[in-house]
Amino acid sequence: MRLNPAGVEAGRILKERREAIAARVTDLYFEAHPKLELRWKDARKKCTEDTRHHIDQLAEALHLQQPVLFAEYAVWIAELLARLRIPGEALSSNLAILGEIASSELQDAGRAMVSSYLDAAIARITTEESQHPCYLNGTGYIDVLGRDYLAALLQGDRRLASKLILDAVEQGSPIKEIYLHVFQRSQYEIGRLWQLNEISVAKEHYCTAATQLIMSQLYPLIFAGEKNDGTYVGACVAGNLHEIGGRMIADFFEMAGWNSYFLGANTPAESVVETLVERNADILGISATMTGQLGAVEELVGLVRAKSACAGVKILVGGHPFNIAPDLWRAIDADGTARDAESAIQLAGRLAGSGAAQERSS
Question: Considering the domain 225-360, what is its CATH architecture?
Answer without folding.
Answer: 3-Layer(aba) Sandwich (3.40)
